[in-house]
User: Fold this.
Amino acid sequence: MQISSSAARPLHHTSCGSPPPLRGGGAAVRAAGRFALALLLALAWQQGAAAQTAPSGEPPAQHKLRPNGKSAAQPAAAPAAPAAPAPNTPAPENHAAGPAAEPDFAFGAYQRGYFLTAFGFATRRVEEKSDVKSMTLLGEIYAEGLGVPRNDGKAAEWYELAAARGDRNAMFALAMFRLQGRAGARDRQASAKWLAAAAKLGHPTAAYDLALLYIEGQLFPQDFARAAELLRVSAQAGNAEAQYALGTFYKEGRGVGKDMVEAVRLWALASLADNSEAQVEYALALFNGEGVAKNEAAAAALFRKAALHGNPVAQDRLARILSAGRGAPADPIEATKWHLISKARGETDLMLDDFVAKLDAPTRAAGEKAAKPWLDALRKPPG
Assistant:
């Protein structure tokens, strides 16, 4: 038995021809922006400030340097207990390395949920040193309303100040603002411009989103070779979506030469980050021995992991494995369960339809009972 990949989901825009959404529309944009600011600013701070505790002093009483030339209200002293930290906090980057590096108290306070204290320290660093990373942090604080009222206008002004001084994270934040229509009208062209600027400076998420635009071929001429270059930048920085997408490019020979070994390597990396689509492709390669040594047991384990994460292709392939006893012991009840779940999510598999139809009534009923909690959850209205 060979498990076909025809029903697997390669990169969405290459398989169905529909333009891909930019990563981060709506709430996802905020998540993408904050993830990027969290991941990409953290490198040097981890050297100098990982062991720092939140400072206990109050922020300065006056804030002289503002993007609009006005002073902000004085933030309060640090609270007795920190607020819950932001889920994806920005972190500084490109500070000097080594024992003489100055700890970033603003980010240290921010990471621990002392947002007003972070605001004060960031403001002081801007006033005293014109610190670009602190400008971006102030933009993030205003953008998310952390310790201060949310103010998209002020956030955009701080981001623009930092972007004008070459901060790639501020550029990415502005791209997301333009895409969402925050602090101004929606403007995909302006968003693309900021994405290009941030990607040029090596911002992984910006490079990924810009690659999607080159695949889409609307704002830019369609260019798979350029998209592959950008995906590589993002993949090398650890972006699992880019690793999966670039692996699909290598599988199909799109923008790069066909190379199944490299495709499998990239899918394996993305699988470590629980990208279920990469897990499906990696499992297919393992099961069929394409680009990697054949290992049906490892493939079955990966299919199960992706199936439990709700991937319908993995659920279908796991049902096939359990029906045939290849890579895992045969289990007609579990095979029926996963077939019914994947079928409810849109997968069509006539072979498994026939397999289930030929089972005895008690076995089929047991499989239906095992699938019922999943099917009930799928039928439940969202929210």
About this structure: Residues 361-379 form the longest helix (19 residues). The CA atoms of residues 106 and 338 lie 50 Å apart.
